[in-house]
Each structure stands twice: as structure tokens, then as C-alpha cells.
Design a protein that fits this description.
alpha+beta; 34 strands; 19% helix; 17-stranded antiparallel beta sheet; 40% strand; globular; 791 residues; Ubiquitin-like (UB roll)
């Protein structure tokens, strides 16, 4: 009672102090006499079709930043003593924000800018006024906007003196951004000029520019329509007699291709002769290479990433694809593609260009050593990591990573099983090859999607004295390809092999596993051979401020092996490979997120995760219980199950400590919870805001749980059921701090359980089953992480 009452008292007092603190802050404290603090502004517009967010960008004066309605940064500034220059007051002013004093000239400028913007969108008779309300030395500004009539496009005409260009432009009018009936939008007209420029540059018109295009309007006030004339400037050049004459726009072919692959291009320019002696000049296909013998990437690999070809038309799309593929090799810190026009071609309609690609490579190899400290529920430990990378292992831009890790952690607890030191060793090797390893050619696909092949191998050794020894071996082979916002991952083969030798199991631990068959499934040797497909669409790549992120994954394990065994006529189940039963399951999940930027100081992140796994076939095993009765157990492998809790999940719970369902686990063997399930539902809401210096804050609410797909009488409430799952959703909330350094983001989140689904369920501040305490230490969880959650 004493502990609980103390906590309730401290929390209530905390919020009372916060309210009094902000209430006592006078926002006009440092506003000069006769002037006004800009409290707020409002846009009042009579046309809902106009984007208000676009209009806000033209407002010249905005009020002081707010966090949950409070001017925190203004309060920081006002808390300083302006007459003192010591470090404390300077720090308050530096991290705070001066009061925004309302200025008539900026309000008038905003009125002018809003009017110009609306006119550019086709509202030629827009009318904008301002109203300023003064009260208690504060000013509220209201911008009253009447859009008036909007002009729409009636007819589009192209005035092109060059008949060759006219043929290409008219043939592409179906893709025109200017449509009949749309508003006369200047931004659309400019975008159309850029589109035409790109179209012509893909037809060989290297020297053509959007500046040669003007869009002229002929408006009709009676019907509020406009005819648009897209006028092309004639091309003119001086002759040898210095007379300027009109002629068709020239088209360009590529005459030659040269790649300058130097270890130091600046030195090469300064000391050309020395570098030329140290370099080899060779020809690969139609490309000439100036390349040093120890250049990290071979000429053949560079050549495969070039899509600009000799004796072909100049195309800007080929240039962009070449940039993309050379960047995809991840070996060059600088890539420059330049074109030089052949001299003495004046007057010719078909001309030639020489292309030079200059490459400055990264350092080929590198390594780093990291020391790490761990604190798992008070169990201290430390480890060392060694990272080695080679950006071109065999000379073809194969990116090789090798990670070695060793960890020791002192473990103590008051549970039945105790052990002193947890030891873990891990080695992982990954190689990324910048092409598809396939028995067939896929040149067009490669040119469009820049694919990669990834091969990885991992070995992990874990030793828990008086508990178990566990080894994990995994190997995978997969493909990846992407475009602007979509990313595809296909793993035809993913092997996961777990060994837990029974000779290393303690007697107490073995007895507990025999008593609970479902738990035994998580601590026995097994093998997973699966295939998977993952699709990621990240719209933030197109819009940095707002956008959806969706990740879907589908995995199937054991289907191929099961088919082979059935075709071979073997009838005894479960089927085994290397003396271990292999798993069979199908699993799919969707991770949907929405990122919204309210303003430069406030952001929202919303996330929904749904995952479902279904074990079948070879994953169904028959267990013999202590009373010699049998029981059928169906469960996915422990590594493939879902879990809840931790720094990137429901943050009121420790990692893997939530669920499954309403089941109350009384069989935990160590201080490390391992609650998992075949089904997972989770929702997260996070409000992020800037504080001071590099510190950011966050308020969050998380909800979710995991469930088993099959009912087990030994685990009541653990299985998923439509008539009760919504009552078994957990709820937690809390506050977090992020330290946003240039090289790393450190994060600390303090979560509190608001609703615990265990047993009959319990809301916060209601009596617990085992006593009268309402809120205690175990209702809070501090999570330390790196990076943003749900980034």
C-alpha cells in the first residue's frame, strides 16, 4: 500500500506542477510595449478544392512553435534573463525561440503572395484581404480568400517551326499533362515543358532545352476559358560568314565512349603523363578504358553497367540508367558523365558526341571494431564485434561483409534454474552480387530494375550453463530488384538448422520440457527449408514529408521436401532430414505505416501490423506425456513465430513478454521471457516533436498481442478466437527521448501498461489479482534502442 500510494502521489503531483509551471509562463513577457505577439493565423477560403497546405507555404509569419498546444520553445527563451550572458541563460536562449512579433508588412506580403499563387492556379480574379484581431498584447491574423472564377483549358495548339521536332511532339500528345477542361495551372505548364524536353532528349536532341518553349494564353472572359499556344523558339546558328540563320534543331549520335577509371582524378588532371604511365588503356566492346591495374572494379563489370552505346542516338534515359547502375555497384564516390561535341559540325542536322565517364572509387576494404554493453533486466554483460567489408571481393563489385561477435553476460535470478554466465559467439558472411545469377539472360530486366543476388551464411553458438547449448546454422540465396518506390525480395532457398543436443540439457529443464509439449517444441532440434517473397513500397521516396510505407511478406516452408518424400513413397511421419524433422508452415504478414508531417516541429507516425502463420503437415507431432498419454502438438518453429513487447513493439512490455492471448505463463524457465505466437495483431501511434539541441521527444500509444493458431488445453486463452481476441489486446502508452546525432540516433522509451490482457484482463489503476497495489515498478518498461521505431 505504501509503495503504491507513493507512486500515485508522485504522478499526480508531477502533472499538477507541470500545469502550474506552464500556466505561470507569460508568453508576452519579452514583447516590447506597443507591439503584439503573433498568437495564431487562419486561412478562410470559399473554395474547398484549393489545397490549404499549399497556401500555408506562402504565409510569411507564423506563430511560435507548439508542442501539444504549449509554446515550449518560447517558454525556454522567456525563462532566460536577457541581461545575463552566462552559459545557463545563453543555453536557454539558444535552444529557445524568440517571440514572433506581428508585423504589418509581412502580413501584407502574405496577402500579395497568396493572390499571386491563386492567379498561377487559374483563379485570375482571386481576392485576398486580411483581418487582424488584437487582444491582451496578442494578434490573431485572418486571411480571407475569395477565389472568384477559375479559367479552364479550352484548346491546346502547338506552334513548332521545326517539322522534325513537330512530328515527335505531336505523336506524344496523348501523354501531355495539359488536358481539356483542367484549370490553367502554371505549374502544370512548366511540368509539360520539362516533359517535352525529356521526350526530345530521348530522341537525340542533346542541346534542346525547356527554355526554348513558352506557353501563351488567350483568355475569354465570357465563358472563362483559355486557349493555350505552346510555342517553340526556332533554332538559329551563326554561319562561317558570321550570319545567323534559322535551321532545324540538330540531333546527336554517340561517336565514342571512354571510361576514365583513375584512383585519383584530380592528380591525373594535374600530372597527366605520370598517371597515364601507371594506367592501362584497353577496349572492352565499344568502350575505351583508361584504368589502373589495381582499380577495384574490372572493366567488364563497369561495361555491363553502361547503357550508352556508340553509333546510337543520344538518349537522356540511357544516361540516367547508367548513373543508376554505376551507383548500384556501390564502389564509386564520384560518377561524372560528360559529353563533348565534335568540332566543325555547324550546319549539320546529324551531329556526333564523345562521351566520357569519370569514376572515383571508394576505398576497397575496411574494418571496424565495436565494444558493446548489455543490460537485460539487470543482467550485465559485454561483448565485442568485428566488422570487415570488401566492396569488390573478386573484382566484379561483389560487396562482401563479414561480422564476428562474441558476448558474455552474467545472469542471476530467483527462479528454479540458475546459471552464472551466458556466452554467445556468432559469425556471419554475406556477399551481394550486382546481377542475377540465373541460367538464362535477363538483359532488359537488368537494365530496367538493377537487380542483385545475395548469398549469406551464419553460424551462432549459445551456451547457458546448467540450461542448454544451442547452435544455429543458416544459409540463404535470394534476389532483389527495385525501381523508384518499389522493392522486391525473392528467396528461393532459405535453410535454418537448429541443434540442441539433449546431452547438454539439465535434468530439471528436461523434466519441464517433458511436462509441457508445446514448450518442448521451442527447445528441440529442428530444420526449416523455406521460400519467401517480400514486397516493399515506400512512398516517402517520392514525398519526404508524407507518405505510406507497406511491407508484405509470404513464406512457405517444407512444401518441396514434403513433396519429394511423398513421391518417394515414404509413409512414416514425421519426415526427417539429417535426423531432424523439418517444419511445414505457411506464413504471411502486412506492415502498413503512414508518416505525416504537421509542420517542421511536429510529426505523426501510424502503424498497423497483421501477421498469420499456420503450421501443418510435418509440423504436427505426437508427444508422450508423463502419464504416458499422447497429445498432438502443432506449432511453427520458435524462430519463425511472432512476438510482442520490446523497443519496436508494445513498449509497456519487455521483449517477448506479452501474450499469447490471455494465457498466464507459469512455466518460464529463466529471467528471459520467450512468449511467442503464430498470429500477431499490433497498432502503434506515435507523435514526435523537436525539443532542444539534438533532442527530440515522442508520445506513443501501442496496442497488440500474439496468439497460437491451435487450441492447447495446457495453455488456456493462448489460442486466437474471433469472439474474444479484441478483449485480449494489450494497451500501453508512454514518453520517449531521441538523441539525433549525425551518425546515430539513440532512443529511450518509457512505456506503461495501460491494459494487461493476462488472465481476466486488468486496466491500469485497478487492483491486481494478487493484492491491492494499483501501479508499481513492474508496470513500467524502459526500452533502449538505436534509430526510430517503425522508421
Amino acid at each position: 500500500m505504501g509503495e503504491s500510494g507513493g507512486i500515485r502521489y508522485s504522478f499526480s503531483n508531477f502533472w499538477i506542477i507541470v500545469l502550474i509551471f506552464f500556466a505561470s509562463c507569460n508568453p508576452t513577457k519579452n514583447v516590447p510595449q506597443g507591439e503584439y505577439l503573433l498568437r495564431a493565423y487562419e486561412l478562410r477560403i470559399d473554395n474547398r478544392s484549393v489545397n490549404k497546405e499549399q497556401l500555408r507555404s506562402f504565409v510569411q509569419q507564423r506563430p511560435n512553435k507548439k508542442i501539444l498546444g504549449a509554446r515550449f520553445h518560447l517558454w525556454l527563451h522567456n525563462s532566460s534573463k536577457l541581461e545575463k550572458d552566462n552559459w545557463w541563460n545563453e543555453g536557454l536562449r539558444k535552444n529557445g525561440e524568440e517571440p514572433v512579433i506581428w508585423q504589418q508588412n509581412k502580413t501584407s506580403r502574405t496577402v500579395e503572395e497568396l493572390g499571386l499563387y491563386l492567379k498561377s492556379k487559374g483563379y485570375y480574379y482571386a481576392y485576398v484581404t486580411d483581418t487582424v484581431i488584437f487582444k491582451n498584447r496578442k494578434a490573431d491574423v485572418i486571411y480571407n480568400i475569395r477565389t472568384g472564377w477559375a479559367y479552364t483549358v479550352n484548346r491546346i495548339s502547338y506552334l513548332i517551326p521545326d517539322t522534325a521536332i513537330e512530328k515527335f511532339v505531336l505523336a506524344d500528345t496523348l501523354n501531355s499533362l495539359i488536358k481539356h477542361g483542367m484549370l490553367v495551372d502554371e505549374d502544370v505548364l512548366k511540368a509539360e515543358s520539362r516533359r517535352i524536353e525529356t521526350n526530345l532528349k530521348n530522341r537525340g536532341y542533346f542541346s534542346f532545352s525547356r527554355d526554348y518553349i513558352t506557353c501563351e494564353l488567350d483568355t475569354f472572359r465570357i465563358n472563362r476559358k483559355a486557349n493555350i499556344y505552346v510555342r517553340f523558339r526556332p533554332h538559329s546558328e551563326p554561319t562561317r560568314e558570321n550570319q545567323v540563320v534559322e535551321m532545324p534543331y540538330p540531333r546527336y549520335n554517340i561517336r565514342s565512349m571512354t571510361v576514365n577509371a583513375s584512383l585519383n582524378m584530380q592528380n591525373m588532371l594535374e600530372t597527366a603523363n605520370t598517371q597515364r604511365e601507371a594506367s592501362d588503356t584497353l577496349k572492352h566492346g565499344e568502350v575505351n578504358f583508361i584504368i589502373q591495374q589495381d582499380f577495384p572494379v574490372r572493366a567488364s563489370t563497369i561495361n555491363n553497367s553502361i547503357f550508352i552505346f556508340s553509333d546510337s542516338l543520344y538518349r537522356i534515359s540511357d544516361v540516367n540508367q547508367t548513373y543508376q547502375h554505376l551507383n548500384g555497384l556501390r564502389n564509386f564516390q564520384q560518377i561524372n558523365i560528360g559529353f563533348s561535341e565534335i568540332s566543325e559540325q555547324a550546319g549539320l542536322q546529324m551531329r556526333e558526341l564523345d562521351c566520357m565517364i569519370s569514376l572515383l572509387p571508394f576505398t576497397r576494404q575496411g574494418y571496424r571494431v565495436e565494444l558493446e554493453g548489455t543490460n537485460s533486466e539487470g543482467n550485465l554483460g559485454g561483448g565485442i564485434r568485428l566488422h570487415y567489408h570488401n566492396k569488390s571481393l573478386f573484382g566484379h563489385a561483389e560487396f562482401f561483409n563479414l561480422n564476428l561477435r562474441g558476448l558474455m553476460e552474467a545472469v542471476s535470478g530467483d527462479r528454479e534454474l540458475k546459471f552464472n554466465t551466458k556466452m554467445e559467439y556468432e559469425a556471419e558472411a554475406t556477399i551481394n552480387i550486382p546481377k542475377f545469377l540465373l541460367p538464362v539472360q535477363a538483359n532488359k530486366f537488368t537494365q530496367k530494375y538493377n537487380p542483385n543476388t545475395t548469398i549469406s551464411i551464419l553460424y551462432n553458438y549459445q551456451q547457458y550453463p546448467e540450461y542448454y547449448v544451442r547452435t544455429v546454422f543458416s544459409a540463404s540465396f535470394g534476389y532483389n530488384w527495385r525501381n523508384a518506390v518499389n522493392n522486391h525480395f525473392v528467396k528461393p532457398l532459405d535453410v535454418y538448422f537448429v541443434q540442441l543436443p539433449s546431452s547438454y540439457l539439465s535434468d530439471n529443464f528436461r523434466a519441464t520440457l517433458n511436462r509441457y509439449p508445446y514448450l518442448r517444441n521451442s527447445y528441440q532440434s529442428h530444420m526449416v527449408v523455406s521460400s519467401s517473397y517480400t514486397f516493399v513500397r515506400d512512398m516517402r521516396l517520392a514525398d519526404r514529408d508524407n507518405g505510406f510505407f507497406i511491407r508484405t511478406n509470404l513464406e512457405n516452408a517444407g512444401f518441396l521436401l514434403n513433396t519429394i518424400y511423398r513421391m518417394s513413397g515414404q509413409s512414416e511421419k514425421p519426415y526427417e532430414m539429417f535426423s531432424n524433422a523439418f517444419s511445414q508452415f505457411i506464413k504471411g504478414d502486412v506492415d502498413l505505416r503512414y508518416y505525416h508531417t504537421i509542420n517542421e516541429n511536429n510529426r505523426l507516425v501510424n502503424r498497423i501490423f497483421v501477421g498469420v502463420g499456420f503450421p501443418y503437415g510435418n509440423s504436427k507431432t505426437t508427444a508422450v506425456l508423463e502419464d504416458f498419454t499422447t497429445k498432438t502438438v502443432a506449432a511453427m518453429p520458435f524462430e519463425k513465430k511472432y512476438h510482442a513487447g520490446g523497443a519496436n513493439s508494445t513498449r509497456g512490455w519487455r521483449l517477448r513478454s506479452l501474450g499469447p492471448g490471455s494465457y498466464r505463463d507459469t512455466t518460464s524457465l529463466t529471467s528471459y521471457p520467450n512468449n511467442t505466437g503464430d498470429i500477431k495483431l499490433e497498432a502503434n501511434f506515435e507523435y514526435r516533436f523537436n525539443l532542444v539541441w539534438r533532442m527530440e521527444g515522442a508520445l506513443f500509444v501501442d496496442a497488440g498481442n500474439v496468439w497460437d493458431s491451435y487450441k492447447d488445453n495446457d495453455r488456456p486463452g493462448a489460442n486466437f478466437s474471433f469472439d474474444r481476441f479484441y478483449r485480449e489486446m494489450s494497451l500501453s502508452g508512454g514518453f520517449g527521448l531521441r538523441f539525433n546525432f549525425p551518425f546515430i540516433i539513440l532512443r529511450a522509451d518509457l512505456g506503461m501498461k495501460l491494459r494487461d490482457p493476462e488472465g481476466d484482463g486488468r486496466w491500469a489503476f485497478t487492483p491486481k489479482i494478487t493484492g491491492n497495489r494499483r501501479v508499481s515498478r513492474e508496470d513500467f518498461c524502459l526500452s533502449i534502442g538505436i534509430g526510430y521505431p517503425f522508421f
